[in-house]
Specification:
21% helix; four-stranded mixed β-sheet
């Protein structure tokens, strides 16, 4: 049971575990206290292949979850949203679909099974009134081509994990002009998006979708030889998370 100090008297003696949120401790029948959980403590373990192609576990801290899903505007967060959880539970994309909904009082619709199923995704979107989809670029493209109904009524759809297809984004926006398409990028260590870009009409004339700028609470750097490059110069987009570093080639804007 979750309670506060001021309401403790209403739940004392109930014979159940009580979480007193403003004390940040857990009391079980008045006996024993569990340690306070800090921002650097592990919230969950996700798996990523990174650049090696071999799955490896990433211990994600609480601060990564809080920083990615609270105080953000790259997606609609609130009680009126319906998120579809269709990502494998071991992928960090799962965190947006679950925690992005639950931390804001929204609805999370769970797709049965352990892997995305295009036909089921389309059915759930239509039946449950899904408003947010997060998809790998390959799945996004397949749904646009074979199951375009999967985007009907959706307010925001993300393509990520791989380079987004300009042609497929243009195709789905032609079908659903009110849809907002986001191109998200970020490693598992960051627990979701580190950068995000809302695709604009001007982007559809390019050969690639921008990866965008850092979302709130996060920082990225475009470096060459470990030095920040000037605006308009090609460099390596660097991200540091708990001593870990990664990068892709981009132009600083």
């Amino acid at each position: 049971m979750v309670s506060r100090v001021g309401l403790r008297g209403a739940v004392d003696g109930a014979g159940v575990a009580v979480v007193v949120v403003d004390e940040l401790v857990v009391s079980v029948g008045g006996r024993g206290l569990l340690p306070v959980v800090g921002s650097e403590d592990v919230a969950c373990v996700m798996f990523t292949s990174g650049s090696t192609g071999r799955p490896k576990g990433v211990a994600a801290p609480h601060r990564a979850l809080v920083g990615t899903y609270l105080g953000q505007d790259y997606a609609g967060f609130g009680p009126g949203e319906v998120f579809l959880q269709c990502s494998p539970v071991s992928w960090d994309g799962f965190a947006l679909e679950l925690f992005g909904a639950l931390l804001h009082g929204a609805v999370c619709v769970l797709q049965p099974g352990q892997s995305p199923q295009p036909e089921v995704i389309e059915s759930l979107v239509l039946e449950q009134g899904v408003t947010m989809l997060q998809l790998s670029a390959s799945l996004f493209n397949y749904l646009v081509d074979e199951h375009p109904g999967a985007f009907e009524g959706v307010r925001v759809a993300f393509t990520g994990g791989e380079s987004g297809s300009v042609a497929h984004v243009a195709k789905v926006l032609a079908l659903y002009p009110g849809l907002r398409v986001g191109n998200g990028y970020g490693p598992a260590e960051s627990m979701g998006f580190t950068t995000c870009h809302a695709v604009a009409e001007a982007d559809l004339a390019g050969v690639a979708l921008p990866v965008g700028r850092a979302v709130a609470h996060k920082r990225v750097y475009v470096l060459e030889g470990l030095r920040v490059v000037p605006v308009g110069v090609m460099g390596r987009f660097m991200l540091r998370v708990r001593g870990w570093r990664m990068g892709i080639r981009v132009v600083r804007v």
